[in-house]
Design brief:
The chain is α+β, with helices and mostly antiparallel strands. It has two helices and three strands; from the N terminus they run E-H-E-H-E. The chain has helices spanning 23-31, 47-55; strands spanning 9-14, 40-44, 60-65.
Length: 67
């Protein structure tokens, strides 16, 4: 398993709606490049991105891509 900052990639899929979520959670979802259920984004495995993902684990599904 690649650790944070090792140059890996993270595949993120939004699996739940942001309706009823806190405004900060909605903003985090938007900053991750997501917006509706089923939308996908591939992000770099960095500490700042990991921190954003840690704020909204109930709304997303996370998969680590192996190089």
């Amino acid at each position: 398993m690649a650790g944070p900052g090792s140059g890996g990639r993270l595949r993120v899929v939004q699996v739940r709606s942001t309706i009823g979520s806190k405004p900060a959670h909605r903003a985090t979802i938007r900053a991750l490049g997501l917006g509706r259920i089923g939308s996908r984004s591939v992000l770099p495995d960095r500490p700042d991105v990991r921190g954003m993902l840690a704020r909204v684990p109930h709304l997303i599904e996370l998969t680590e891509e192996t190089p």
